């Protein structure tokens, strides 16, 4: 049995783990990272990046199909477009390969040792890794658990056969003719929209009364409208009961208690993700939990000395950029820096059509803090750049305290608004007031002008509406 000793051991090389290891390596901390699959984790291999690649391909294809139907106003016509899904998936796999290779190189450059295999804790300082060449024991002064999350499985719809998770959906070589998506949240709507654009007949079954229930109705209305235009059937307040006996349809209880049969080649179950807490010896550690996730404090410390937890395993929000920020912070703490989690917001984007961005508090959330608020909203129908991109649907909305105008939240829904998330996050992190945003020159013609106008609107003097 081989043994290694190190200062820091990171278990899991997703965005949380690999960023933590790179930063620790940069700071001269002797670091080992263990990964059972590929560096980059869920995000790079079966999550953020492959889904955005598929969404992009679908968007391009749908645009061309639209033009070929002679429906577009741009004066462009084409002959019938065709899709080779296997080629699309191979292109997506190429991007994943480049990125995972890039992470390996960055780890090497930071002098981090990577061990490939499944890690199992013996105690809070020691793990055993099943590698291709046998068991590797690693002893460390400090440990970071970054094991990520896994898809939630519904007891009535176990994964297998036609019932798939997002991982299988991103690797299909043949387009399902009829796709039923269970769960109208982030993954279900991002992928459901992509498959509808690629040509599948898509139905979405959502248990709550609205799709994307964590947002307000105003923000999700343009998404619901576009789904309808794309021919996606959305059943809200509905429960998936299980597959039909033949396995060719999903049986659903609709809101009014009736039973409906939705024919399906594939049923994509996207009802959330849960912290990956099984199979790696969590029971050998004495860690407090928050439900399924590992409880952490504002430095990502667990209840066991020298053991940290970051990313999805430490609970919501399960987002790659939050995992990365935690990873960087923990590496600096371990290297002796004074750091704690003092972020004002974690922006979130749903890459639907149109996209939805939220940073900070929604109007109702801001009201619940007891603060009196001002809300300014500017529609893209009054924005020149949006018009030139055929993207007039949607708006930017700014939520600020009424007394001192400090911005509490910013939301947008619209085509290409994901790129505005940087400006939104920066404004909130810097403690911007409405006057700061209104007084910043926003280049013309851009969607960003909508942000400035929303701040002006909240101040009572928007210029273009
Ligand atoms: P993970 O990325 O899950 O990585 C954990 C790693 O640990 C894995 O590689 C796993 O193999 C490894 N591991 C686990 N246990 C062990 C063990 N015992 N031994 C060795 N290795 C182990 N987030 C966004 O911010 N934006 C998006 O657009 C977005 N899109 C998504 C789309 C999909 C389809 C999915 C599924 C997720 C998406 N997410 C997105 C969420 C994002 O992928 C996660 O929040 C992020 O990957 C979490 O990072 P992590 O480091 O905590 O864990
Ligand atoms: P989600 O929480 O976003 O959505 C799950 C949806 O399923 C909810 O709307 C919920 O009401 C519904 N639901 C739950 N049980 C159901 C049932 N039995 N029948 C019908 N509907 C049911 O979860 P997700 O879409 O699986 O994504 C998981 C996580 O991954 C997200 O919370 C997010 O943290 C991350 N993610 C982020 C992005 C992004 O940032 N763009 C993209 C994809 C995933």
TrEMBL record:
Residue sites binding FAD per the record: 52, 147-149, 312, 318-321
Domain FAD/NAD(P)-binding: 7-327
Biological process terms in GO annotation: 2-oxoglutarate metabolic process
PROSITE patterns with a match to the protein in the record: PYRIDINE_REDOX_1
Cofactor note: Binds 1 FAD per subunit.
Signal peptide interval: none
Family annotation (SUPFAM superfamilies): FAD/NAD(P)-binding domain (SSF51905), FAD/NAD-linked reductases, dimerisation (C-terminal) domain (SSF55424)
Cofactors demanded by this protein: FAD
Bridged cysteine pairs (disulfide): 43-48
Pyridine nucleotide-disulphide oxidoreductase dimerisation domain mapped to chain residues: 346-455
Keywords: Disulfide bond, FAD, Flavoprotein, NAD, Nucleotide-binding, Oxidoreductase, Redox-active center
Active site: 444
Annotated binding of NAD(+), by residue: 183-190, 206, 272
Flavoprotein among keywords: yes
Record-listed E.C. numbers: 1.8.1.4
GO molecular function: dihydrolipoyl dehydrogenase (NADH) activity; flavin adenine dinucleotide binding
Reactions performed catalytically: N(6)-[(R)-dihydrolipoyl]-L-lysyl-[protein] + NAD(+) = N(6)-[(R)-lipoyl]-L-lysyl-[protein] + NADH + H(+)
EC category: oxidoreductase
Other comments on record: The active site is a redox-active disulfide bond.
Family to which this protein belongs: Belongs to the class-I pyridine nucleotide-disulfide oxidoreductase family.
Protein name: Dihydrolipoyl dehydrogenase
């Amino acid at each position: 049995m081989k043994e290694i000793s190190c200062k820091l051991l990171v278990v899991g090389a997703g965005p949380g783990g690999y960023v933590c290891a790179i930063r620790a390596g940069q700071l001269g901390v002797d670091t080992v990272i263990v990964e059972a699959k590929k560096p980059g984790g869920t995000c790079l291999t079966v999550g953020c990046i492959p889904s955005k690649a598929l969404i992009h391909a679908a968007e391009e294809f749908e645009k061309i199909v639209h033009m070929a139907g002679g429906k577009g106003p741009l004066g462009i016509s084409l002959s019938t477009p065709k899709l080779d899904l296997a080629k699309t998936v191979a292109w997506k796999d190429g991007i994943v390969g480049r990125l995972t290779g890039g992470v390996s190189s960055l780890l090497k450059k930071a002098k981090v040792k990577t061990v490939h295999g499944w890690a199992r804790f013996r105690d809070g300082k020691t793990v055993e890794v099943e590698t291709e060449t046998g068991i590797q024991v690693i002893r460390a002064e400090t440990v970071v658990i970054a094991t990520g999350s896994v898809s939630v499985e519904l007891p009535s719809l176990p994964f297998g056969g036609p019932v798939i998770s997002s991982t299988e959906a991103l690797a299909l070589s043949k387009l399902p003719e009829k796709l039923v998506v269970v769960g109208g949240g982030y993954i279900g709507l991002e992928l459901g929209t992509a498959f509808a654009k690629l040509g599948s007949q898509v139905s979405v079954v959502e248990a709550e009364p609205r799709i994307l229930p964590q947002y307000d109705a105003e923000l999700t209305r343009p998404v619901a409208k576009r789904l309808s235009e794309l021919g996606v059937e959305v059943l809200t307040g509905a429960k998936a009961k299980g597959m039909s006996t033949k396995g060719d349809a999903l049986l659903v209880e609709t809101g009014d208690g009736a039973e409906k049969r939705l024919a399906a080649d594939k049923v994509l179950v996207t009802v959330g993700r849960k912290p990956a807490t099984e199979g790696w010896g969590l029971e050998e550690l004495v860690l407090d939990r928050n439900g399924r996730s590992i409880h952490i404090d504002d430095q990502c410390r667990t209840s066991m000395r020298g053991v940290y937890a970051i990313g999805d395993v430490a609970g919501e929000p399960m987002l790659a950029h939050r995992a990365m920020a935690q990873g960087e912070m923990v590496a600096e703490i371990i290297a002796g820096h004074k750091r704690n989690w003092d972020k004002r917001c974690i922006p979130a984007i749903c890459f639907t059509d149109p996209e939805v961005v939220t940073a900070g508090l929604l109007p109702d959330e801001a009201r619940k803090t007891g603060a009196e608020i001002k809300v300014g909203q500017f529609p893209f129908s009054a924005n020149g750049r949006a018009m030139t991109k055929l993207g007039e649907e949607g708006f930017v909305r700014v939520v600020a305290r009424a007394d001192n105008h400090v911005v509490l939240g910013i939301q947008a829904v619209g085509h290409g608004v994901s790129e505005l998330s940087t400006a939104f996050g920066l404004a909130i992190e810097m403690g911007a007031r409405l006057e700061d945003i209104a007084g910043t020159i926003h280049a013309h013609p851009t969607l960003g002008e909508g942000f400035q106008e929303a701040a002006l609107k909240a101040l009572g003097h928007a210029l273009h509406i």
